[in-house]
Specification:
Largest sheet: 9 strands, mixed
Helix content: 25-40%
CATH architecture: Alpha-Beta Barrel
CATH superfamily: Aldolase class I
Number of strands: 9
Shape: globular
Number of helices: 10
């Protein structure tokens, strides 16, 4: 199956790029709607300007096996984030903003290098706040011979309007489904109305690419992968998330229920986040997913 962005005409690609950069002039790329002019160096919540801002890149073998395949997932970690999670495991990148501004051409060359290393896809980690820069660079990379799938690896605090512009470009959407309680989302991630935003974003992703499809080697080529990180003391609100996925997305959704939470960054200072989850908490989450008919649950 050919990646979607290879089917776009140059004109269609340019129209999408123009629409995305127009949103940067009074930034409405994500639901925060900061309304700053990032094309003139003004900074909003994400503290990211006009150029791509990248922390690191390389083949990643710690992702889901359907992305890793034989040669790894070609992961690019984009600096900063539009959330403020107090337990982020990549806080040096997301919160401390360790990284460098690079040119659009350099980002395109990174994509090509990852393809040359044999990576099965380009895995965009925390792309939401930099999606205009990414798509501009992707068009350049396509002209240089890029032909692997694109993975949109997101916290799901995404604008549906922006996601609609990405239709016909993104092959695999991989959103987090973090919380079902907006008060918890605000406290732990500074994310107002997270549950409503996340639900609408995931429904749009599903509309565009559908259930996950694999090639003959078991490697993902198109579709939706949902990640849900189990938090201690029920803070993630897992049951309502699984109910939403079952009733409003697909009972065949590819779901990774993750048990790797550990206290990082400021989490050690939060009484309910200062420990790992128990085996019982994880097993209860899996049980709840099955209760709502979700059977395509990822296992290592």
């Amino acid at each position: 199956m050919k990646p979607l962005y290879l089917e776009l005409t140059d004109w269609e690609f340019e129209e999408k790029i123009k629409a995305l950069f127009d949103k940067l002039k009074s930034c409405s790329i994500c639901p925060r709607n900061c309304k700053v002019d990032r094309t003139k160096g003004q900074l909003g919540y994400c503290k990211t300007g006009f150029l791509p801002f990248v922390s690191s890149y390389g083949p990643h073998f710690g992702e889901e096996s359907v992305l890793v395949g034989f040669n790894g997932s070609g992961t690019i970690f984009f600096t900063s984030c539009n959330l403020g999670c107090i337990f982020c495991q990549n806080y040096e990148i997301s919160q401390l903003r360790v990284g460098d501004e690079i040119s659009f051409e350099d980002l395109a060359r990174i994509m090509i290098k990852l393809q040359q290393l044999g990576c099965h896809n380009i895995n965009l980690v925390s792309p939401t706040h930099q999606i205009p820069q990414i798509i501009k660079s992707l068009k350049i990379a396509r002209s240089m011979g890029l032909k692997v799938s694109i993975v949109y690896n997101t916290n799901a605090y995404d604008s549906v309007e922006t996601l609609k512009t990405l239709e016909g470009i993104i092959d695999i959407y991989m959103p987090d489904a973090k919380y079902s309680d907006n008060n918890v989302a605000r406290e732990l991630s500074d994310a107002p109305s997270y549950f409503e935003v996340m639900k609408e974003a995931i429904k749009e992703m599903q509309r565009q690419v559908g259930d996950l499809l694999l090639n003959g080697n078991g490697i993902a080529v198109r579709g939706l992968i949902v990640r849900h990180l189990v938090l201690p003391n029920g803070l993630a609100g897992s049951e309502l998330i699984f109910k939403f996925l079952s009733q409003s997305v697909s009972k065949n959704v590819f779901l990774n229920i993750m048990e790797q939470y550990r206290p990082c960054f400021k989490a050690t200072l939060h009484p309910k986040l200062s420990r790992r989850i128990t085996k019982e908490e994880f097993e209860e989450a899996v049980k709840l997913a099955k209760k709502y008919g979700l059977t395509r649950i990822y296992k290592e």
